[in-house]
Design brief:
Blueprint lengths: L7 E4 L3 H13 L4 E4 L2 H10 L5 E4 L8 H10 L8 E5 L10 E4 L4 H11 L12
Parallel strand pairs: 1-2, 1-3, 3-4, 4-5
Helix pairs in contact: 2-3
Length: about 130
């Protein structure tokens, strides 16, 4: 992930959606890392700093979004990462997650991410 700056990890197999999400978030001044599959996301998580939030598509080939969420919850270091599901099949989302149905409301999605962004490395923007 980027140069040690806090990042949000976007996990989306559709290149157009992945690119759009990255561009929207970067336009808001956010650092973004992208992964095109659940397996690529796991690789990112194993090799880099923990992201402060994740946006995960559910329906992906290989390691699907549901499997990625299960992996996150099983790993102590990753279990507390805030996750939002971004999916055309919101009914498949595991319970307890913020869900953005495709087509998504970009303002609400950006607000979700910004509310979880650390301020000067000391927790989410709204905390304190």
């Amino acid at each position: 992930m980027a140069d040690g700056s806090p990042t949000v990890l976007v996990v989306e197999d559709d290149i157009d959606t992945r690119t759009a999400l990255r561009e929207f978030l970067e336009e808001e001044g956010l650092e973004v890392t992208v992964a095109g599959s659940g397996a690529e996301a796991i690789n990112c998580l194993c090799q880099a700093e923990r992201p402060y939030a994740m946006l995960i598509d559910l329906m992906m080939p290989g390691v699907a979004g549901e499997d990625l969420v299960a992996y996150l919850r099983a790993e102590t270091r990753l279990a507390s990462i805030p996750v939002a599901i971004v999916s055309a099949s919101p009914e498949r989302a595991p319970p307890g997650f913020r869900v953005f149905s495709k087509p998504f409301d970009i303002e609400a999605l950006v607000a979700f991410v910004k509310a979880r962004r650390p301020v000067n490395g000391r927790g989410p923007a709204g905390a304190g």
